[in-house]
UniProtKB/TrEMBL annotation:
Designated name of the protein: Major facilitator superfamily (MFS) profile domain-containing protein
Regions crossing the membrane: 43-66, 127-148, 160-177, 183-208, 220-244, 250-269, 304-326, 338-360, 372-391, 397-414, 435-456, 462-482
InterPro entries attached to this UniProt entry: MFS_dom (IPR020846), MFS_trans_sf (IPR036259)
Predominant location category: membrane
Domain (Major facilitator superfamily (MFS) profile): residue spans on this chain: 69-486
Membrane topology, as annotated: Multi-pass membrane protein
Entries under Pfam families matching the protein: MFS_2 (PF13347)
Disordered: annotated span: 1-23
Species annotation: Microbacterium deminutum
Cellular compartments annotated: Cell membrane
Keywords assigned: Membrane, Transmembrane, Transmembrane helix
């Protein structure tokens, strides 16, 4: 024990650059742990920037570009000939007036309202299909990438090749999306883009377990949580602001940002060579069975279920945000107004969300507690879903966004830190955090399906908020059975 302690102190005393304190890896080919110094700051800086870049895709593409792309394509399918120039906003307001009993439709208006009903269901179902297919493929790929990333031996380390591939190739696929001429082609290209980008995001998240000491993982996860939120916000705001002028060409801007950030992370937050990594002979049976190892751990399994439920509920509430602004709120907004307003809903919660992310990450480290933060976040988010039911207006959606933003800000950093705390085998962090990511992907896959089904079956959006509230509350319940976890 004395020899081990002296070796550890000696390793800590060997600075890599001025002011650095780096703990050398215990196993050959694995990453050094950054206690403090320039290398720690460089890693955290580029980790945050790349997280922002990747999540800006989801804010810009899934939040603004993809729904508009789907709507443009479906408009061409449903409103043809003399109906091609129809004003959706006025037609929706007419429908709301008829529902309120203050107007009566003419025969021609009744025909157009039937088209509107079919169009509303079709665009919701098409968007759900495209979103879900990509997430399902990601569900299959991400854990596999996690396993192979644990075994990758290159002079750039275990994670860097996957991060570089995911960001560069994923960016090229985003560019191809711009030219998709049909729903089918758009679905295929987006499916590939989402899957490839996730080959970068999974290994990127794992670098926290690789390079951060235990007492700084909450802080690092908080920066990642901030990056997740800010990236989505940045992408959504810029896409919404510039859509009126450059439209779908915004795909090019997002793609360039992701590719640049991926290359910079690999170059300036460079990892140790993993060529000396000791790996066992690959066995396909053990490979597939390995995915179940983490889920055999009681604590890991319950945290995983909680993530599925909260992600499921959150995705249900956000999957059709653009369409909700056009068809749920009173009075209804036009497509241009909805496109500009959707990202502002995220902006409304920025101050409180940033504060919640930073405070929750640091406070959970200081108190040594994670579970209570997840429970509070889930309950608060569930309560926020009641607001649009009582206030089906644009202001109502803004209030919900603020309250929900606080909840999500509490949840993001602590959830990832909690998963790292309950890992059954730290040596297989990539594999098991890939399984953890599978929980997010599963919830994201189910969310659009449920949301579009509610719209298709009920012809409205209020059921979306009810379903979302129930799901996130159940996420809090799933955390209660944890044992030995504060």
């Amino acid at each position: 024990m004395g020899n081990h302690m002296s070796e550890t102190l000696a390793a800590e005393a060997r600075p890599k650059t001025r002011g650095d304190v780096v703990l050398e890896p215990a196993e050959p080919g694995t990453s050094p742990i950054y206690i403090r110094g320039a290398r720690s700051r460089a890693y955290l800086t580029w980790f945050t920037i790349l997280t922002i870049a990747i999540t800006s895709v989801w804010g810009a593409v899934t939040g603004i570009l993809l729904p508009n792309h789907v709507q443009i394509l479906e408009m061409g399918n449903w409103f043809t000939g003399a109906d091609a120039g129809i004003d959706l906003q006025q037609l929706t307001i007419l429908q709301q007036s008829i529902d309120a009993g203050t107007a009566t439709a003419t025969a021609e208006q009744a025909r157009q309202l039937e088209l509107l009903s079919g169009f509303n269901a079709a665009r919701a179902q098409s968007l759900a299909m495209i979103s879900t297919i990509g997430v399902i493929l990601t569900m299959l790929i991400q854990p596999i990438v996690g396993v192979f990333a644990d075994r990758t031996r290159t002079r750039w380390g275990r994670r860097a090749p996957w991060i570089l591939f995911g960001t560069v190739v994923g960016s090229l696929l985003l560019v191809l999306m711009r030219f998709a001429p049909s729903i089918a082609v758009l679905a295929v290209v987006f499916m590939l883009a989402q899957a490839v980008l996730n080959t970068a995001s999974g290994p990127l998240a794992t670098t926290v377990a690789d390079r951060m000491p235990e007492n700084r993982r909450g802080t690092a996860s908080a920066l990642g949580g901030f990056g997740n939120f800010f990236g989505g916000l940045l992408g959504g705001l810029l896409a919404g602001a510039f859509f009126a002028t450059i439209g779908l060409d915004f795909y090019f801007i997002v793609a360039a940002f992701v590719a640049f950030s991926g290359v910079m992370f690999v170059l300036f937050a460079r990892d140790r060579s993993s060529k000396d990594l000791e790996v066992t002979t690959f066995n396909w049976k053990q490979f597939f069975v390995g995915f179940t190892i983490a889920l055999r751990s009681r604590n890991f399994r319950w945290v995983w279920v909680a993530r599925i439920l909260l992600t499921f509920g959150y995705t249900v509430s956000t999957a059709l945000s653009l369409y909700m602004l056009q068809s749920y709120v009173k009075p209804a907004l036009s497509q241009a107004e909805a496109t500009a307003t959707a990202p502002l809903l995220l902006l409304a919660g920025v101050p409180v969300t940033i504060l919640a992310v930073l405070v929750a990450g640091r406070l959970s480290d200081k108190l040594g507690k994670r579970r209570i933060f997840v429970i509070v976040a889930s309950v608060l988010m569930g309560l926020s879903m009641l607001i649009p039911i009582v206030m089906p207006t644009v202001p109502g959606l803004f209030v919900q966004a603020i309250v929900g933003g606080i909840a999500f800000g509490i949840y993001l950093p602590v959830d990832q830190a909690l998963f790292i705390d309950v890992l059954p085998d730290k040596r297989a962090a990539g594999r098991d955090l890939g399984v953890a990511g599978l929980g997010s992907n599963f919830g994201q896959a189910l969310g659009p399906i449920l949301a579009s089904t509610v719209v298709a079956v009920t012809g409205g959006y209020v059921g979306i908020w009810i379903a979302a509230g129930i799901l996130v509350i159940l996420g809090a319940v799933a955390i209660l059975p944890l044992k030995g976890v504060k």
